[in-house]
Write a structure and sequence with these properties.
The longest helix has about 60 residues. The radius of gyration is 23 Å and the shape is globular. Helix content is about 80%, strand content about 0%. The protein has 14 helices and no strands. The chain is mainly alpha-helical and about 290 residues long. Helix 5 packs parallel to helix 14.
């Protein structure tokens, strides 16, 4: 019970989540009051954002957070939420559309104009390209699972916080890059985005396989927690590897299928447009010939 209370009263986590949820709701409410319910942000998108916030709360404020200190498998489940579950749900809610509406119209226009001509925008465009995002996500995944850094994260709260922030931030960049919420040229890069998801899926699968197949426990720090729950260190590690390998793999595979369907649908639309243009040109040629 003590651990549950401790994990449910973390203002450094609860406050940003609450502020984000309230700010998003305020932005959506303003848009819907101005243009009608469902304008710019459909109800299912708002529900996706709320689910993403709830997922972060589950990972960081529920008893799962306390259990993650004791069991490596629980820690891996927590990482899975931060990397695979919450980020795409939050981005599906289009917070980049809702949040600017909290500002007065003049500030909103000036702020967006400043951003699109700033160095920060150029940096963001660089780090959120698919291959750079894949590299950052993969680096975070492997670096924080090195035994030395992993143990340091469990032993020092600020290191643990840095670990969570790096997982979540690089995952946000990755999902932004492959889901292309900003539109523009990214709509033409479906093959690259599909390959990017596949590369990240390989990274997680490789780590999960190594954890499952290793005959040596990597993280002795979990020995007491595993024993208390009737597990050996190696069994806890194998379960963690299974979590990283299978559920994460299914999520990435679902993303690949989604992107593939969008790509095929877009190609079909382009083909129909091309056919329509050719048909219109043929009609004009026929009309010109008859007039001549």
């Amino acid at each position: 019970m003590h651990l549950t209370v401790m994990t449910s009263l973390q203002p450094q986590v609860a406050l940003p989540l609450a502020v984000s949820a309230v700010a998003y709701a305020g932005g959506v409410a303003r848009i819907w009051r101005r243009a009608g319910v469902g304008a710019a942000i459909r109800p299912w998108r708002a529900a996706a954002f709320a689910t993403g916030i709830a997922a972060l709360g589950l990972a960081l404020l529920s008893p799962l957070d306390a259990l993650a200190d004791a069991l490596f498998s629980a820690h891996m489940a927590q990482h899975l939420v931060l990397i695979v579950v919450a980020p795409p749900l939050l981005l599906a809610g289009r917070p980049y559309v809702a949040l600017p509406w909290l500002l007065p119209a003049t500030w909103r226009r000036r702020g967006l104009g400043w951003w699109h001509h700033s160095l920060l925008d150029r940096i963001f465009r660089t780090v959120s390209t698919p291959l750079v995002a894949v590299a950052l996500q993969s680096a975070a995944l492997w670096t924080w699972h090195l035994p030395g850094l992993y143990t340091a994260a469990l032993g020092h709260e600020w290191v643990h916080g840095l670990e969570h922030v790096s997982f979540f931030a690089t995952a946000l960049l990755f999902w932004w890059a492959v889901l292309a919420p900003g539109g523009g040229r990214r709509h033409q890069a479906y093959p690259l985005r599909i390959v990017s998801v596949f590369l990240v899926m390989l990274q997680g699968g490789a780590l999960g396989a190594l954890l499952m197949l290793s005959r040596q426990a990597w993280y002795p720090v979990h020995e007491a927690g595993a024993a208390l729950r009737g597990m050996s260190l190696l069994e806890d590690q194998q379960l963690a590897g299974l979590i990283m390998w299978v559920p994460a793999g299914v999520a990435y595979l679902a993303a690949i299928l989604f992107l593939t369907s969008r790509w095929l649908r877009r190609e079909d639309v382009l083909a129909h447009r091309h056919d329509a243009v050719l048909a219109a040109a043929a009609q004009r040629s026929g009309a010109a010939a008859r007039a001549g």
